[in-house]
Amino acid sequence: MTAGQFGSLADPIHYSTRNHTALATVNYTPSERLSFFGNFVYNDGRGSLGGLALDAAGLAAIPAGFDYAAVSDLTRFSALNVRRIQQAYGFYYQVSDRWVFTWMVFHGQYKDRQPYLVNTTGRNAGIHAGINLIF
Amino acid sequence: MGYDYQKIRRDAAEVADTETNRFLVSLSTRPSRSLQARVRYRLEQITGPFTHLRAAYSPALQPNPSPGSPPSPLLGTQYYTLYAARQANLTMFPSLIQLVEPSITWAAGERSSFSIHYRWRTERNDKLNFSDWERQAHLPGVEAWFAPTQKLNLTLAYNFHNERSHTLFVVPAFDG
Protein backbone atom coordinates (compact mmCIF):
# COMPACT_ATOMS: atom_id res chain seq x y z
CA MET A 1 0.00 0.00 0.00
CA THR A 2 1.20 3.54 -0.56
CA ALA A 3 -1.36 5.80 1.10
CA GLY A 4 -2.63 3.40 3.74
CA GLN A 5 -4.73 0.40 4.68
CA PHE A 6 -7.52 1.44 6.98
CA GLY A 7 -9.42 -1.73 7.78
CA SER A 8 -12.69 -3.05 6.42
CA LEU A 9 -16.36 -2.13 6.36
CA ALA A 10 -18.93 -4.82 6.93
CA ASP A 11 -22.68 -5.06 7.16
CA PRO A 12 -25.25 -7.85 6.72
CA ILE A 13 -26.89 -7.89 3.29
CA HIS A 14 -29.91 -9.84 2.13
CA TYR A 15 -31.20 -11.15 -1.19
CA SER A 16 -34.95 -11.56 -1.65
CA THR A 17 -36.82 -13.27 -4.48
CA ARG A 18 -40.52 -13.58 -5.27
CA ASN A 19 -41.59 -15.81 -8.07
CA HIS A 20 -45.15 -16.49 -9.30
CA THR A 21 -45.71 -19.34 -11.74
CA ALA A 22 -49.04 -20.25 -13.32
CA LEU A 23 -49.42 -23.27 -15.58
CA ALA A 24 -52.27 -24.52 -17.74
CA THR A 25 -52.20 -27.64 -19.88
CA VAL A 26 -54.83 -29.28 -22.04
CA ASN A 27 -54.76 -32.72 -23.66
CA TYR A 28 -57.27 -33.95 -26.22
CA THR A 29 -57.14 -37.53 -27.45
CA PRO A 30 -59.69 -37.99 -30.26
CA SER A 31 -58.45 -41.52 -31.06
CA GLU A 32 -56.06 -44.13 -29.68
CA ARG A 33 -53.36 -43.03 -32.10
CA LEU A 34 -53.72 -39.26 -32.00
CA SER A 35 -53.29 -36.83 -29.10
CA PHE A 36 -53.24 -33.04 -29.17
CA PHE A 37 -51.68 -30.98 -26.39
CA GLY A 38 -51.26 -27.36 -25.36
CA ASN A 39 -49.14 -25.87 -22.57
CA PHE A 40 -49.14 -22.33 -21.23
CA VAL A 41 -46.71 -21.09 -18.54
CA TYR A 42 -46.71 -17.61 -17.03
CA ASN A 43 -43.87 -16.58 -14.77
CA ASP A 44 -43.31 -13.34 -12.88
CA GLY A 45 -39.97 -13.10 -11.08
CA ARG A 46 -38.52 -10.39 -8.90
CA GLY A 47 -35.30 -10.36 -6.90
CA SER A 48 -33.00 -7.83 -5.33
CA LEU A 49 -30.27 -7.23 -2.82
CA GLY A 50 -31.01 -4.97 0.11
CA GLY A 51 -30.33 -3.93 3.66
CA LEU A 52 -26.77 -2.76 3.10
CA ALA A 53 -25.66 0.29 5.11
CA LEU A 54 -21.89 0.65 5.20
CA ASP A 55 -20.72 3.02 7.90
CA ALA A 56 -17.21 4.41 7.38
CA ALA A 57 -17.10 5.94 10.88
CA GLY A 58 -15.12 2.97 12.20
CA LEU A 59 -12.33 3.28 9.65
CA ALA A 60 -8.96 4.79 10.57
CA ALA A 61 -9.27 6.95 7.42
CA ILE A 62 -11.17 6.95 4.14
CA PRO A 63 -9.25 6.40 0.89
CA ALA A 64 -9.31 9.54 -1.24
CA GLY A 65 -12.37 9.80 -3.45
CA PHE A 66 -14.30 6.91 -1.86
CA ASP A 67 -17.91 7.34 -0.80
CA TYR A 68 -19.06 4.28 1.12
CA ALA A 69 -22.59 5.56 1.53
CA ALA A 70 -22.76 5.48 -2.28
CA VAL A 71 -21.41 1.91 -2.29
CA SER A 72 -24.37 0.94 -0.09
CA ASP A 73 -26.61 2.13 -2.92
CA LEU A 74 -25.30 -0.56 -5.27
CA THR A 75 -28.14 -2.85 -4.16
CA ARG A 76 -30.49 -0.64 -6.17
CA PHE A 77 -28.83 -1.85 -9.39
CA SER A 78 -29.31 -5.51 -8.54
CA ALA A 79 -33.09 -5.45 -8.89
CA LEU A 80 -34.51 -8.10 -11.21
CA ASN A 81 -38.06 -7.78 -12.45
CA VAL A 82 -39.03 -10.02 -15.34
CA ARG A 83 -42.06 -11.66 -16.89
CA ARG A 84 -41.93 -14.76 -19.05
CA ILE A 85 -44.73 -16.38 -21.03
CA GLN A 86 -44.12 -19.67 -22.81
CA GLN A 87 -46.63 -21.55 -24.93
CA ALA A 88 -46.38 -24.85 -26.80
CA TYR A 89 -49.00 -26.62 -28.91
CA GLY A 90 -48.73 -29.82 -30.87
CA PHE A 91 -49.73 -33.43 -31.32
CA TYR A 92 -48.50 -37.00 -31.04
CA TYR A 93 -49.47 -39.53 -33.71
CA GLN A 94 -48.71 -43.19 -33.15
CA VAL A 95 -47.68 -44.42 -36.55
CA SER A 96 -47.24 -48.02 -35.35
CA ASP A 97 -46.72 -49.91 -32.10
CA ARG A 98 -43.10 -48.74 -31.89
CA TRP A 99 -43.05 -45.41 -33.72
CA VAL A 100 -44.59 -42.10 -32.64
CA PHE A 101 -44.52 -38.92 -34.70
CA THR A 102 -44.42 -35.61 -32.80
CA TRP A 103 -45.06 -32.10 -34.04
CA MET A 104 -45.02 -28.95 -31.92
CA VAL A 105 -44.96 -25.19 -32.32
CA PHE A 106 -43.73 -23.07 -29.44
CA HIS A 107 -43.53 -19.38 -28.65
CA GLY A 108 -42.05 -17.45 -25.75
CA GLN A 109 -41.99 -13.84 -24.59
CA TYR A 110 -39.53 -12.47 -22.07
CA LYS A 111 -40.01 -8.98 -20.70
CA ASP A 112 -37.25 -7.30 -18.71
CA ARG A 113 -39.23 -4.73 -16.73
CA GLN A 114 -36.23 -3.21 -14.99
CA PRO A 115 -33.23 -3.36 -17.34
CA TYR A 116 -29.79 -2.37 -16.11
CA LEU A 117 -26.90 -2.12 -18.58
CA VAL A 118 -28.63 -4.56 -20.97
CA ASN A 119 -32.33 -4.92 -21.74
CA THR A 120 -32.93 -8.65 -22.03
CA THR A 121 -36.47 -8.33 -23.40
CA GLY A 122 -37.06 -10.70 -26.30
CA ARG A 123 -39.06 -13.46 -27.94
CA ASN A 124 -38.40 -16.95 -29.15
CA ALA A 125 -40.40 -19.15 -31.47
CA GLY A 126 -39.89 -22.48 -33.16
CA ILE A 127 -41.30 -25.57 -34.75
CA HIS A 128 -40.32 -29.05 -33.69
CA ALA A 129 -40.93 -32.29 -35.57
CA GLY A 130 -39.65 -35.66 -34.47
CA ILE A 131 -40.05 -39.38 -34.67
CA ASN A 132 -39.72 -41.47 -31.51
CA LEU A 133 -38.86 -45.15 -31.27
CA ILE A 134 -40.36 -47.05 -28.33
CA PHE A 135 -38.32 -50.10 -27.31
CA MET B 1 -39.57 -42.02 10.45
CA GLY B 2 -35.97 -42.20 9.47
CA TYR B 3 -32.44 -41.22 10.37
CA ASP B 4 -29.22 -41.12 8.44
CA TYR B 5 -25.68 -40.05 9.10
CA GLN B 6 -23.17 -38.75 6.61
CA LYS B 7 -19.52 -37.92 7.05
CA ILE B 8 -17.45 -36.13 4.43
CA ARG B 9 -13.66 -36.07 4.76
CA ARG B 10 -11.64 -33.69 2.59
CA ASP B 11 -7.92 -34.05 2.06
CA ALA B 12 -7.27 -30.60 0.62
CA ALA B 13 -9.58 -28.13 2.33
CA GLU B 14 -9.44 -26.04 5.49
CA VAL B 15 -12.62 -27.69 6.76
CA ALA B 16 -11.56 -31.33 6.66
CA ASP B 17 -14.62 -33.03 8.18
CA THR B 18 -18.35 -32.41 7.80
CA GLU B 19 -20.85 -34.56 9.68
CA THR B 20 -24.59 -34.54 9.02
CA ASN B 21 -27.32 -36.06 11.20
CA ARG B 22 -30.61 -36.17 9.31
CA PHE B 23 -33.99 -36.98 10.88
CA LEU B 24 -37.15 -37.54 8.84
CA VAL B 25 -40.77 -37.86 9.93
CA SER B 26 -43.64 -38.39 7.50
CA LEU B 27 -47.33 -38.69 8.36
CA SER B 28 -49.93 -39.72 5.84
CA THR B 29 -53.67 -40.13 6.36
CA ARG B 30 -56.68 -41.00 4.23
CA PRO B 31 -59.81 -40.04 6.21
CA SER B 32 -62.03 -40.93 3.24
CA ARG B 33 -61.68 -42.41 -0.23
CA SER B 34 -61.54 -38.97 -1.78
CA LEU B 35 -59.27 -37.16 0.69
CA GLN B 36 -55.59 -37.67 1.35
CA ALA B 37 -53.31 -35.59 3.58
CA ARG B 38 -49.61 -35.81 4.16
CA VAL B 39 -46.99 -33.89 6.10
CA ARG B 40 -43.23 -34.34 6.05
CA TYR B 41 -40.67 -32.88 8.42
CA ARG B 42 -36.91 -33.04 8.03
CA LEU B 43 -34.23 -31.83 10.42
CA GLU B 44 -30.55 -31.77 9.54
CA GLN B 45 -27.81 -30.87 11.98
CA ILE B 46 -24.46 -30.31 10.30
CA THR B 47 -21.19 -30.14 12.19
CA GLY B 48 -18.37 -28.44 10.33
CA PRO B 49 -20.21 -27.25 7.19
CA PHE B 50 -17.91 -26.28 4.35
CA THR B 51 -16.63 -22.78 5.11
CA HIS B 52 -14.07 -20.33 3.77
CA LEU B 53 -12.06 -19.69 6.91
CA ARG B 54 -10.63 -16.19 7.29
CA ALA B 55 -12.26 -15.09 4.03
CA ALA B 56 -12.60 -11.33 4.64
CA TYR B 57 -12.52 -8.44 7.08
CA SER B 58 -8.93 -7.29 7.54
CA PRO B 59 -8.31 -4.87 10.42
CA ALA B 60 -6.47 -1.56 9.96
CA LEU B 61 -2.81 -2.41 9.38
CA GLN B 62 -1.32 0.77 7.98
CA PRO B 63 -3.12 3.96 9.03
CA ASN B 64 -0.39 6.24 7.60
CA PRO B 65 1.22 6.62 4.16
CA SER B 66 4.20 4.37 3.40
CA PRO B 67 7.70 5.77 3.99
CA GLY B 68 9.42 7.60 1.14
CA SER B 69 8.73 10.60 -1.03
CA PRO B 70 6.68 9.82 -2.95
CA PRO B 71 5.44 6.94 -0.68
CA SER B 72 6.97 3.65 -1.77
CA PRO B 73 4.64 0.67 -2.34
CA LEU B 74 7.56 -1.63 -1.54
CA LEU B 75 7.80 -0.29 2.00
CA GLY B 76 4.06 -0.40 2.72
CA THR B 77 1.77 -3.26 3.73
CA GLN B 78 1.83 -5.97 1.07
CA TYR B 79 -1.23 -7.79 -0.32
CA TYR B 80 -0.24 -11.09 1.30
CA THR B 81 -0.09 -9.41 4.71
CA LEU B 82 -3.56 -8.01 4.08
CA TYR B 83 -4.89 -11.44 3.04
CA ALA B 84 -3.26 -13.18 6.01
CA ALA B 85 -4.94 -10.75 8.43
CA ARG B 86 -8.51 -11.55 7.32
CA GLN B 87 -10.71 -12.50 10.27
CA ALA B 88 -14.25 -13.34 9.18
CA ASN B 89 -15.28 -16.88 8.22
CA LEU B 90 -17.86 -16.93 5.41
CA THR B 91 -20.01 -19.68 3.99
CA MET B 92 -23.27 -20.46 2.22
CA PHE B 93 -23.62 -23.87 3.87
CA PRO B 94 -25.91 -24.26 6.89
CA SER B 95 -25.34 -25.88 10.26
CA LEU B 96 -29.10 -26.43 10.69
CA ILE B 97 -31.81 -27.19 8.12
CA GLN B 98 -35.52 -27.64 8.77
CA LEU B 99 -38.14 -28.54 6.19
CA VAL B 100 -41.90 -28.81 6.66
CA GLU B 101 -44.06 -29.92 3.74
CA PRO B 102 -47.80 -30.47 4.22
CA SER B 103 -50.12 -31.33 1.33
CA ILE B 104 -53.81 -32.22 0.88
CA THR B 105 -55.36 -33.85 -2.18
CA TRP B 106 -59.09 -34.08 -2.74
CA ALA B 107 -60.50 -36.22 -5.52
CA ALA B 108 -63.87 -34.58 -6.07
CA GLY B 109 -64.96 -37.37 -8.41
CA GLU B 110 -63.56 -39.66 -11.06
CA ARG B 111 -62.86 -36.72 -13.30
CA SER B 112 -61.46 -34.01 -11.05
CA SER B 113 -58.97 -33.58 -8.26
CA PHE B 114 -57.54 -30.65 -6.32
CA SER B 115 -54.29 -30.44 -4.45
CA ILE B 116 -52.83 -27.81 -2.16
CA HIS B 117 -49.33 -27.92 -0.77
CA TYR B 118 -46.87 -25.78 1.11
CA ARG B 119 -43.14 -26.07 1.65
CA TRP B 120 -41.23 -24.18 4.29
CA ARG B 121 -37.48 -24.53 4.40
CA THR B 122 -35.09 -22.72 6.68
CA GLU B 123 -31.32 -22.97 6.69
CA ARG B 124 -29.06 -21.28 9.18
CA ASN B 125 -25.40 -21.17 10.11
CA ASP B 126 -24.87 -19.47 13.45
CA LYS B 127 -21.35 -20.86 13.94
CA LEU B 128 -19.63 -18.06 12.04
CA ASN B 129 -17.51 -15.57 13.96
CA PHE B 130 -18.81 -12.24 12.61
CA SER B 131 -22.34 -12.75 11.27
CA ASP B 132 -24.91 -15.48 10.87
CA TRP B 133 -25.79 -16.85 7.45
CA GLU B 134 -29.47 -17.61 6.77
CA ARG B 135 -31.81 -18.64 3.99
CA GLN B 136 -35.54 -19.10 4.30
CA ALA B 137 -38.03 -20.15 1.63
CA HIS B 138 -41.83 -20.40 1.48
CA LEU B 139 -43.40 -22.26 -1.45
CA PRO B 140 -47.21 -22.56 -1.42
CA GLY B 141 -49.00 -24.01 -4.43
CA VAL B 142 -52.28 -25.36 -5.77
CA GLU B 143 -53.12 -27.76 -8.60
CA ALA B 144 -56.41 -28.73 -10.20
CA TRP B 145 -57.08 -31.50 -12.71
CA PHE B 146 -60.30 -31.92 -14.69
CA ALA B 147 -61.41 -34.40 -17.31
CA PRO B 148 -64.76 -33.12 -18.69
CA THR B 149 -64.84 -36.08 -21.09
CA GLN B 150 -62.78 -39.22 -21.45
CA LYS B 151 -60.92 -37.65 -24.34
CA LEU B 152 -60.19 -34.25 -22.83
CA ASN B 153 -58.30 -33.27 -19.69
CA LEU B 154 -57.01 -30.00 -18.25
CA THR B 155 -54.47 -29.18 -15.56
CA LEU B 156 -54.20 -25.81 -13.85
CA ALA B 157 -51.50 -24.94 -11.34
CA TYR B 158 -50.12 -21.97 -9.44
CA ASN B 159 -46.94 -21.85 -7.37
CA PHE B 160 -45.40 -19.04 -5.39
CA HIS B 161 -41.78 -18.98 -4.28
CA ASN B 162 -40.63 -16.44 -1.71
CA GLU B 163 -37.02 -16.70 -0.57
CA ARG B 164 -34.72 -14.52 1.47
CA SER B 165 -31.04 -15.07 2.25
CA HIS B 166 -28.79 -13.12 4.52
CA THR B 167 -24.98 -12.89 4.72
CA LEU B 168 -22.13 -10.55 5.63
CA PHE B 169 -20.93 -8.05 3.01
CA VAL B 170 -17.35 -6.83 3.45
CA VAL B 171 -15.41 -4.07 1.66
CA PRO B 172 -11.69 -3.64 2.39
CA ALA B 173 -10.53 0.01 2.61
CA PHE B 174 -7.05 0.63 1.25
CA ASP B 175 -5.33 3.10 -1.00
CA GLY B 176 -2.46 2.42 -3.38
Provide a quick synopsis of the model.
The complex is a heterodimer of chains A (about 140) and B (about 180). Chain A is mainly β.
Largest sheet of chain A: 5 strands, antiparallel
Low-confidence segments of chain B, given as residue ranges, are: none
Order of helices and strands of chain A: EEHEEE
Order of strands across the widest beta sheet of chain B? 1-2-3-7-8-9-10
Radius of gyration of chain B: 26 Å
Q: Count of DSSP helices of chain B?
A: 1
Beta-strand residue fraction of chain B:
over 45%
Main beta-sheet strand count, sense and barrel state of chain B: 7 strands, antiparallel
- Percent of residues of chain B in helical segments? under 10%
- Shape, principal axes of CA atoms of chain A: rod-shaped
Radius of gyration of chain A: 26 Å
Overall form of chain B = elongated
In whole angstroms, the N-to-C terminal distance of chain A is 69 Å
Uncertain ranges of chain A: none
* Oligomeric state of shown chains: heterodimer
Number of strands of chain A: 5
Q: Can you list the strand order of the major beta sheet of chain A?
A: 1-2-3-4-5
